[in-house]
Specification:
This protein has 195 residues and is mainly α. The chain folds into 2 domains: 52 residues, Orthogonal Bundle (Arc Repressor Mutant, subunit A), CATH 1.10.10.60; 131 residues, Orthogonal Bundle (Tetracycline Repressor, domain 2), CATH 1.10.357.10. It contains 8 helices and no strands. It is elongated, with a radius of gyration of 20 Å.
């Protein structure tokens, strides 16, 4: 069948990823077929294979891109200073980076179970890089006598889960401003580490 109008790789490739992201976030990986993604984009199902090897590769690419963009943004935003200032900056960064990316965040956490073992290992490796930064901040705070906690790894995971969870309930039109909620979260994180 002939190529549909507007089906150019520099246009269609991103549209395939955007459609897959939207549909998987709405319906779940198992419920979304390649044919459904193709319909959303406006191409024949077979044309998708010009942009991805298969549905597993598409899911993996979405997750890997999310983590690579997160790590690049975090590297640019990293601050030096005492552990308290670094913890506050990490908290604020996590909130601001994740909130506008609700679909990516949802897929990155809820669809891990659908990755092949090799793909899962790669995403876990990338996640560990991010988690390790926070764990180092916490350990530096403990070493300096500023933070008081029982286990840096468990506290790291608890903080990240708490901050990430905000993307499921926050609404811009809610009763509190983002600045106010961010301040509340900075305070909660500080209390969690014993400040």
């Amino acid at each position: 069948m002939a190529r549909k109008t507007g089906s150019h790789s520099e246009i269609t490739g991103p549209r395939v990823r955007d459609a897959a992201l939207k549909l998987i976030a709405q319906h779940g990986f198992a419920a979304v077929s390649m044919r459904r993604i193709a319909e959303e984009v406006g191409v024949q199902a077979g044309a998708l294979y010009n942009y991805t090897r298969d549905k597993q590769a598409l899911l993996f690419d979405l997750m890997r891109n999310h983590m690579e963009e997160l790590l690049a943004a975090r590297q640019e935003a990293a601050v030096s200073g005492d552990p308290v200032a670094r913890l506050d900056a990490f908290t604020r960064f996590h909130i601001h980076w994740h909130l506008p990316r609700g679909d990516q965040v949802f897929i990155s956490y809820m669809e891990l179970r659908n990755l092949t073992p090799e793909n899962f290992a790669e995403i876990e490796r990338l996640r560990k890089v991010y988690e390790d930064e926070l764990e180092h901040i916490l350990q530096d705070g403990v070493d300096a006598g500023l933070f008081h906690l029982d286990d840096t790894k468990v506290t790291t995971l608890a903080i990240i889960a708490m901050l990430t969870g905000m993307s499921t309930w926050y609404r811009a039109e809610g009763r509190l401003s983002l600045d106010r909620i961010e301040g509340l979260y900075v305070g909660m994180v500080r209390r969690l580490v014993g400040i």
